[in-house]
Amino acid sequence: HVQLVESGGGSVQAGGSLKLSCVASGDTIGRYCMGWFRQIPDKEREGVAGIESDGSTSYADSVKGRFTISRDNAKNTLYLQMDSLKTEDTAVYYCAAELRSVGGWEPWPYWGQGTQVTVS
């Protein structure tokens, strides 16, 4: 099973940038679909961005044009570049992984511990 550890969170002023990293161990991420999610207290976790094993990406409307998801399979690392940050981006950010197969798969069974992003 893959284990995930996020880093790169912190406090930043509105309009600033942060880059989150998610380092994987236990398996190579090249064959996994990877994603970034975020959660604020008393709200459901929401998907922010995803990247499939073929490199295709998707974004939540709220972050399109501001966030960029990428992966470096050689380094077994997932990234989220966050630019033009807004106060509403404040949340705990999690990376997650799922292994898709033709016969079906368990959605997002692997999660990191989260990293706090605070925009003021």
Please explain how this structure is put together.
The chain is an all-beta fold. 0% of the residues lie in helices and 49% in strands. The chain has strands at residues 3-7, 10-12, 18-25, 33-39, 46-51, 57-59, 67-72, 77-82, 91-98, 110-111, 115-119. The strands form 2 sheets. Strands 2, 4, 5, 6, 9, 10 and 11 form a 7-stranded mixed β-sheet that branches. The protein has a 4-stranded antiparallel β-sheet with strand order 1-3-8-7, with no helix packed on it. A hairpin with a 4-residue loop joins strand 7 and strand 8 (77-82). It is globular, with a radius of gyration of 14 Å.
**Gyration radius from CA atoms, angstroms:** 14 Å
Q: Kindly state the mean pLDDT as a whole number?
A: 96
Tally of separate helices: 0
Tell me the series of helices and strands, N- to C-terminal. Answer: EEEEEEEEEEE
The poorly predicted ranges are none
**Helix proportion of residues, in percent?**
under 10%
Main β sheet profile = 7 strands, mixed
Number of strands: 11
Outline? globular
SS strand fraction: over 45%
User: Which class of secondary structure composition applies to the elements?
Assistant: mainly beta
In angstroms, what separates the terminal alpha carbons?
37 Å
